[in-house]
Amino acid sequence: MSFPSIRSIVDKYGLLPDKKYTKKYGQNFLFDETITARIASFARLPKDATVLEVGPGPGGLTRALLDQSPERLIAIEYDPLCVKALSYLKDAYANLQIIEGDALRTELKSLMIEEKIKPIHIVANLPYNIGTELLVRWLHQLPCVGSMTLMFQKEVAERISSSPNSKEYGRLSIITQILCTVEHGFDLPPHVFTPAPKVESSVIHIQPKPNAHEYIPLLTTLEQITQAVFHQRRKQIKGPLKAIFGENTLDALEKVGATGDQRAENLTPDQYIQLAALKYG
To answer: What is residue 195's predicted lDDT score, i.e. its pLDDT?
Structure first.
């Protein structure tokens, strides 16, 4: 099926009139069809998948996802001008649903068809200004998620996938890795986007672990613990943990194989979830 170029659609609808636009919506468009096809391929979507795309803009990645023949593609777009620009795809594909709305206010369960519930595979070039917040929200809704193939700022992607004892390791690393496996796909330089951001980007694939559902009830407690210790990450861990475990702090650390003189980045995700289980229980 032949469509106008993404650049021509951006020009037609005036999606990049000035820098204020991208600051407001956090959008950096990809015109290169080779890159969007690579992202869609890296998602490794199962046959007849239900797919969610956030921030489709003029539809570059949307086209690549439609080429994967999903059973259903839901595109949530906050900008009404982009929704209007996407009308050419909606008219051509019966399996495409375009929702004008805020992804931060959208529950994944509300997008699932009741009589044929399927996990949702999320594929998105996320707006930089809300990418981390969206990921955490989706982790809390993980029973609804089949997989996530997401583009972040490179430094955020590194935080998500980093290991203990590194400066990038933190709350986002722990919460994500307890629930999911993280696979780095590829990096993209600023010049492939319009307008070009000041940072590199990375595409990563996040796959829920088979036992992830066991840890969902512990997430709120885990977030409280990691917030406490990483807010004071240069201090020995026994200090900030006293606000949570009180006089039982050293005993709790001993039970998970840790010591009070370690710092936040020295504990593994598994040790953190054990601490959360001790507090939760």
So the answer is: 87
